[in-house]
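Example protein was shown:

_____
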Amino acid sequence: MGVLTTLSMAAFSSLMTANHLNEATAIVQGQLELARQTAKTLNRSVQLRLYQDQNNTSTAPSIDSLQIVVPAENSTTESDEPIEKPILLPQSTIIADSTNDLSLTSFSNSGPPSNPPTSNSFNPLPPANFIYCYILTFSTTGAITTPNTSGNPVSPAPNDSTVYCSLSVVPQKPYRAQGSSAKVGGMQNYATFYLNSINGTYSVTRP
């Protein structure tokens, strides 16, 4: 009975993790599509913000919520306009955040910025618990720009159709167990989005 119970619990846990990952992948997919379409519809730059907060782990802050925002065109007279409230990823899932896995600073996979935007960078302020924010900006044509390590936007070369940035959705515990040099490729269950920065389209890889 004990052995059967243990096996059943392990199988149930694995099933729940897979379900949470599927749900998180669908959320990221929906937010990417909505941000791109909103930018084209409004004819305004639109940001998809990835918030790193303290909700899901006691050992390290994790990227576990997303929000689509129309940034103010004049920060001294206008405020950023959220399209919706931040969406928290399902329990036990995060967006991979090691320099090996998150390429949102430039289009050369050089890793996340050493000093991503903090809570005092936005007006109005985003969720209270968040520490840092990584940003994907969709232009009016659907193209993607991201801030480099100096915080300045980086645009793709006009004739380069092979330029990508990427982000991955992963189960938190197995990912964190790998330490600071975590690599998504060493895991058995994840979803990686490869974003074409020229037109904002993407492909998804699942093992």
In short: The domain at 11-205 is CATH 3.55.40.10 (minor pseudopilin epsh fold). The chain has two helices and eleven strands.
